[in-house]
Specification:
The chain has one domain: Double Stranded RNA Binding Domain (2-Layer Sandwich). Helix content is 64%, strand content 19%. It has two helices and three strands, in the order βββαα. A three-stranded antiparallel beta sheet has the order 1-2-3, with helices on one face. It is elongated and about 70 Å long. Homodimer. Interacts with FtsZ. This is Cell division protein ZapA. Pfam families: ZapA (PF05164).
Length: 104
């Protein structure tokens, strides 16, 4: 699925989407992540295609992009909630430490 030509630490990766090949610049250390993302995108495009509606490539890609963006936003919101929970736990722990120090 990919060919890479080295140019410093940036590589040109050939990816295939909808049976078309695209050259994508990619940092060498992010190549695996990019290829996983392309795999996910291809999987979602295939799901969209298999639903039976005749969508042109652009519309199908747009629908997949919107769905993936929504997934990303949900993940960000969940991360923010977890970070807030951790801040609250940290505050509680700090209060306990402060009380313990005050009791000494």
């Amino acid at each position: 699925m990919s060919e890479a030509k080295s140019s410093n630490s940036i590589r040109q990766i050939t990816v295939t989407l909808f049976d078309q090949h695209y050259q994508v610049p990619c940092a060498e250390e992010e190549q695996d992540l990019l290829l996983e993302a392309v795999g996910l995108l291809n999987q979602q495009l295939e799901v969209t295609r298999s639903r039976g509606k005749l969508l042109n490539r652009e519309r199908a890609a747009l629908m997949v992009a919107v769905n993936l963006a929504a997934d990303l936003q949900r993940a960000r919101q969940a991360l923010e909630e977890r970070e807030q929970e951790l801040r609250l736990v940290e505050q509680r722990l700090q209060q306990l430490v402060d009380r313990t120090r005050g009791a000494e």
